């Protein structure tokens, strides 16, 4: 099979980055609610397709952000999401609505929710869906009632429950259901969670907020879903974390990969609390215990609240929302990946934002963290499989993977090595740095011992551009630390200092007894979603190459460490395009 080509890494630019990337307060991308009054209704005539994704969810044009109220109902998956019908920056937000029977091929419908009433005249922001015991869906969402950004919680119900697509939604006159009292910051009071039914017969929901830099998951309860009362204390809070957006709270089994309904609360489970931190623009979560008698959530001692805690994704990933899928007994997570280029770029190209691939998630057998993996339906798009087995990579080697379309691909690779002896010492001065900072110091071109090794994605032929996704193993006192990086610093030749090109990174909590590490990357023109060690660590990067586009993109496997690495197995596929019948839907998508 003539799909492999071997050469040397010594042609790569070789220098050490003597700086570390400081964690920015907005993750290098614009906040989802940043207003550009002169641009939010500027519609492009000529949509630029060069960096548009092939198999990720995105409408033909304009701005999208948070996934809202995903649900499975009567055989149909529903995805609502924040959408600007009139431009490619945030503003004019409505709840766009698409449906699918397989999570891959989608049909767009008219917007499900949009500003129209006194209780949401100034905005219809994020929310969640709940399936009531009589099999009737209901949506809770945040409405903006005035120019001062006062936020309230409203509900919407299907106009016709017999419509299989639930095209039209109505907002009854008894809205809003929940209004902030004097103890709550009413301008940061949003994003109600999926509700859960307690054993006491009361429904509960969480709303994200902040009080004097203390992040809050404010708890409300209701007997009839219409009259809600604030519990005296939040379900959970954490000092110094800032505003909590898009909270998510759900149970997970201690063993196995099956998902659970939000109301499940029996033995052998833990609970997960996820929050989106407005300050950092990253997603954090803890694993812990839900005390139903006290209505308190207590994170495990191995889970840390805030900036040093676990992240769902260590890259460009925000405002995620999960739901329980009873058809396959699993929990699925949707997330939003904003652009990393500039607002002016977004206006010129006529679109901004994508939804990342839907991910199944479950609790790792250790009980300490979540595991995420692209839903199995994504594999139906695989074409032109190529395979590579038992190939050695000495220091400086790279192998080109041919026979697929590297700009739109799915790659799974397992690396092995014979010894851990060459793992570099972990500098004690790095102990207080984020993984992202260490990756900026120890990039893919910095020769090491055990690593760096991995993939060079969206690469130009002569490596003027590339986005490496790689591992590097360190020896720290009596244990090994595995660093996983997705480094966008060399992803484009475009000379724009305002473009965000970070060295995203996270540590992988993995047992190296078998001396193997696995990596999967979903590559799609301007996005690289990577899953390390079977989904223990996930990183999403947005990149904008100028040379490595379409058929000029290449894919390499590389090693730049002194320890020889074996490609134990590599499977790669071209990814086909889903059926997105946008012409079927509302005129704002056309």
From TrEMBL:
Top-level lineage group: Eukaryota
Residue span(s) of domain Glycosyl hydrolase family 32 C-terminal: 377-573
Primary enzyme class: hydrolase
GO BP annotations, alphabetical order: carbohydrate metabolic process
Signal peptide: 1-31
Example GO molecular function: beta-fructofuranosidase activity
Family matches, as SMART domains: Glyco_32
Keywords assigned by UniProt, alphabetized: Glycosidase, Hydrolase, Signal
The protein's Enzyme Commission number: 3.2.1.26
InterPro entries, per database record: ConA-like_dom_sf, Fructan_Metab_Enzymes, Glyco_hydro_32, Glyco_hydro_32_AS, Glyco_hydro_32_C, Glyco_hydro_32_N, Glyco_hydro_beta-prop_sf
Subunit note: May be present in two forms, a 70 kDa monomer and a heterodimer of the 30 kDa and 38 kDa subunits. The ratio of the levels of the two forms within cells appears to be regulated developmentally.
Family: Belongs to the glycosyl hydrolase 32 family.
Protein name according to UniProt: Invertase
Organism: Solanum tuberosum
Phylogenetic classification of the source organism: Eukaryota, Viridiplantae, Streptophyta, Embryophyta, Tracheophyta
